[in-house]
């Protein structure tokens, strides 16, 4: 028999208010929101003040509430709330990717000890049901790679830049539409995409990785020169989160990519997200859907709520196999770097140069680099140097035949 759900909702922003409406509209789910807690009594809201409480303990101490839905921005405060709710045996649904990327193992342990569920479909790629599919459908170790666009804000900005709309204006629109994080640096510098990648790697490969291990390069430094280069070559620029099995390692990173029109994600625009899953026998499969915004994210939260009626829990079945794999940044890939200054381009340690272009006001170079060596360049802090990935394929260090004369001399590339 399905259980009765009494919900305590923490947060009534873009997703929280969306969930309230989605729950009211959905007749399929027998769940009621017993209490909504928000922080600021003065903030204008779509419901009258008497709908809200202002102390989270009103939810945490209410024994009648058996589900806590956490939808606030502050991931430190969310950590305390989620910990406390799970400790008292309440099920938790959250869409807080930063919280989960940083504390997943600890929270899963607390949930287990208290026989509570911790679900978070809305934390990755908004409305796309990727976590549950990785858990249930791809519940073996046949996955070889997972990649895609998992941030709606940057995809919106990049789509608009392709239409000739500037970065500042596009970001403002994304903020007004409720796609962007409170601190948009998290979106544009690739942190949000990285937190989501941590969760994808955990569910796809069973591998634990800390956010600090994954290098994230964002889109801030992309100039009209890169947009023009993409147009000339028939590419589009997309911020990709990427992870794949390379030998006994899982490699993963976030960076802007030039992608060709044959790529599944080429026509995925605005706030839409796309996740491409590759497995040994099925080859590539594409998931597409709105990755940000009130209702799309609320729909994923709603799906978790309905799963709770049957006490659904993630089982993390791949964790055992995942222990045999290690996370690594040691691989080679092909990149484009552009700058007004040749000195800046020369800072990038190329192993092999394919093309060097110089005009009066811009320089770009393409070729092969070792990914781990890029972190020293701190791309997110630079306005004079843009990096965009050109590779479909990543190459393991062992694949390099001779690194003897290193830069510029790898014959087979
Ligand atoms: N800021 C996030 C995005 C919200 O743009 O994708 C959804 O996680």
Distance between the termini: 60 Å
Number of strands: 18
C-alpha-based Rg, rounded? 22 Å
Give the biggest sheet: 7 strands, mixed
List the quaternary state of the chains: single chain
Helix-and-strand structural type: alpha/beta
Poorly predicted parts: 401-408
Average pLDDT: 94
State the shape: globular
Approximate strand percentage: 25-35%
Helical fraction equals 25-40%
Number of helices: 13
The set of bound ligands, ions and cofactors reads: L-homoserine
Topology:
Blueprint (H helix, E strand, L loop, with lengths): L4 E6 L3 H12 L5 E7 L14 E2 L3 H4 L6 E4 L4 H13 L3 E4 L2 H17 L4 E2 L10 H8 L5 E7 L2 H11 L4 H10 L8 H4 L2 H15 L9 E2 L7 H10 L2 E11 L2 E11 L12 E8 L3 E8 L3 H15 L10 H4 L3 E3 L2 E9 L2 H5 L3 E9 L4 E8 L15 E4 L5 E2 L17
Parallel strand pairs: 1-2, 1-4, 2-3, 4-5, 5-6, 8-10, 10-13
Antiparallel strand pairs: 7-9, 7-11, 9-10, 11-12, 14-16, 14-17, 14-18, 15-16
Helix pairs in contact: 1-11, 3-4, 4-9, 5-9, 6-7
The protein binds L-homoserine (HSE).
Structure overview:
The chain has about 425 residues and is α/β, with parallel strands linked by helices. Helix content is about 30%, strand content about 25%. Strands 7, 8, 9, 10, 11, 12 and 13 form a seven-stranded mixed sheet that branches. A six-stranded parallel sheet has the order 3-2-1-4-5-6, sandwiched between helices. A hairpin with a 2-residue loop joins strand 9 and strand 10. Helix 1 packs across helix 11 (about 295-310), helix 3 (about 75-85) packs parallel to helix 4 (about 95-115) and helix 4 (about 95-115) runs parallel beside helix 9 (about 190-205). The N and C termini lie far apart (about 60 Å). The relative contact order is 0.14.
């Amino acid at each position: 028999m399905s259980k009765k759900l009494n919900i305590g909702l923490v947060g009534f922003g873009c997703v929280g208010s969306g969930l309230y409406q989605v729950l009211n509209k959905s007749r399929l789910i027998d769940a009621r929101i017993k209490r909504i807690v928000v922080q600021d009594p003065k903030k204008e809201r779509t419901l009258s003040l008497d709908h809200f409480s202002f102390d989270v303990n009103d939810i945490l101490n209410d024994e009648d509430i058996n589900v806590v839905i956490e939808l606030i921005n502050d991931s430190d405060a969310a950590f305390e709330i989620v910990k406390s709710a799970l400790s008292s045996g309440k099920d938790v649904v959250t869409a807080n990717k930063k919280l989960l990327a940083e504390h997943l193992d600890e929270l899963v342990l607390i949930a287990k000890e208290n026989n509570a569920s911790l679900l978070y479909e809305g934390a990755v790629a908004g409305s796309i049901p990727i976590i549950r599919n990785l858990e249930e459908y791809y519940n073996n170790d046949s996955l070889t790679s997972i990649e895609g666009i998992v941030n709606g804000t940057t995809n919106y900005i990049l789509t608009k830049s392709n239409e000739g709309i500037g970065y500042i204006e596009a970001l403002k629109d994304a903020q007004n539409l409720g796609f962007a994080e409170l601190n948009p640096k998290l979106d544009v510098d690739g942190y949000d995409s990285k937190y989501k990648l941590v969760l994808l790697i955990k569910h796809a490969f069973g591998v634990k990785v800390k956010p600090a291990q994954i290098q994230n390069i964002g889109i801030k430094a992309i100039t009209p020169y890169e947009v023009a280069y993409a147009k000339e070559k028939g590419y589009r620029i997309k911020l990709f989160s990427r992870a794949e099995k390379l030998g006994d390692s899982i490699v993963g990173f976030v960076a802007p990519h030039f992608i060709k029109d044959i790529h599944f994600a080429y026509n995925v625009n605005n706030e839409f997200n796309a996740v491409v899953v590759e497995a040994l026998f099925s080859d590539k499969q594409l998931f597409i859907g709105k990755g940000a915004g009130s209702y799309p994210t609320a729909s994923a939260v709603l799906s978790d709520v309905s799963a709770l009626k049957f006490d659904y829990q993630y089982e993390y079945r791949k964790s055992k196999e995942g222990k045999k794999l290690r996370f690594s940044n040691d691989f080679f890939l092909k990149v484009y770097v552009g700058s007004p200054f040749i000195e800046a381009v020369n800072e990038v340690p190329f192993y092999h140069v394919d093309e060097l272009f110089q005009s009066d006001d811009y320089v770009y170079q393409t070729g092969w680099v070792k990914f781990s060596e890029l972190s020293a360049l701190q791309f997110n802090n630079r306005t004079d140097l843009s990096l965009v990935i050109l590779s479909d394929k990543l190459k393991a260090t062992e694949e390099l035949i001779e690194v003897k004369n290193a830069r510029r001399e790898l014959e087979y590339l």
